[in-house]
Amino acid sequence: MSEIATASINTFGTSSPKADFVPPEDTLEIPVSEFQAILEDLVSIYNQMAEAVRDAGLLRGRELARLTEDHARALKAERSPTAKLLLLNAYIKRLFLKIREALKSRPEEGGKVIQVVSKIMARAVQIIDYIKTTIQDDPLRRKEIAFDSQQARILFSGAGGEPVSRKETIRAMRRAEKLWPALNCGHRPNDGRQTTRLIGKTEDMKDSPIIGYRSLRQRSDRRVGISL
After folding, report:
1. How many domains does one find in the chain?
2. In terms of C-beta distances under 8 Å and separation of at least 24 residues, what long-range contacts does 94-98 make, across chains too?
3. DSSP 227
4. Shortest CA distance to 150 belongs to which of 173, 124, 176?
5. Which of residues 68, 87, 106 is at a domain's end?
6. How does residue 58 score in pLDDT terms, banded at 50, 70 and 90?
7. pLDDT at 75 over 50
8. Quick one: average pLDDT of 196-218?
9. Helix (H) and strand (E) counts in the chain
10. Closest Cα partner for 112 from 125, 99, 123, 100?
């Protein structure tokens, strides 16, 4: 019986393990060429996501360009392949969050989505956004909305700083009328100058158009992306 006990003890060794002993971690050997291929694949994924973010208008062109340039600079400065892998993973997650947030705010099925493709369209969208905000600020007391061409020109100048002609202003107002049927574009009554204005009843303007802020005219031709 004592022999069995001694044998069992000797199986674990004569001394007890140290409290701070850390067993060695398992290691994985991978050829450099294969690891490089993984990094290049992740770079490709990052660049595709960056282009998707740009095309969807989730970040401004300059902002996205600065972001990708900073990421590329950090990757090139990093010497450790493992650190490069972790950085790429973090950058991809950041872009993924941008896309996921955009998908969450996507209009429900059947909603009317308007794409901004010209200056006239962009100005019409400005008018619609302004009217929507005005209604939301005082939804109970405001029964009707009226927005004339003089207000529109002030709105446009405040946004871009460049003067907009009366002709272009009226074109934008008529485009806004087409985008939002609850608005009616016409002349102000008993006005010798025939000032153009948009009017609409607040009750009829509950279903506002949903604007997709993608500007093909303003889209930057500069390629966004990173490289190792």
Report:
1. 2
2. 95/46, 95/49, 95/50, 95/53, 96/49, 98/53, 98/58, 98/59
3. -
4. 173
5. 106
6. confident
7. yes
8. 68
9. 7, 5
10. 125
Length of the chain: 228
pLDDT at 88: 92
Sole residue written with tokens 């990173």: 226
Please answer whether residues 115 and 216 qualify as being in contact, where contact means their C-beta atoms are separated by less than 8 angstroms.
Answer: yes
In terms of residue numbers, what domain contains 51?
Answer: 32-106
pTM of the model: 0.43
Residue type, 103: L
Mean per-residue pLDDT of the chain: 75
Q: Has residue 197 got a pLDDT over 50? A: yes
Separation of alpha carbons 38 and 85, rounded Å: 8
Question: How far is Cα 171 from Cα 132, in angstroms, rounded to an integer?
Answer: 19
Query: Which pLDDT value is given to residue 212?
Result: 56
- Distance, CA of 228 to CA of 226 (rounded, Å): 7
Question: Residue 13: what pLDDT?
Answer: 47
Q: List the structure tokens of 198.
A: 């948009």
Determine what percent of the chain is predicted with pLDDT higher than 90: 8
Which residues neighbour 174 within 8 Å (Cβ) at sequence distance 6 or greater? 185
Taking alpha carbons only, the member of 23, 4, 52, 71 closest to residue 227 is 71
Q: Are 87 and 147 in a shared domain?
A: no
- The structure tokens 């400065």 sit at 77
Distance CA(185)–CA(144), nearest Å, equals: 14
69 with 95, same domain: the answer is yes
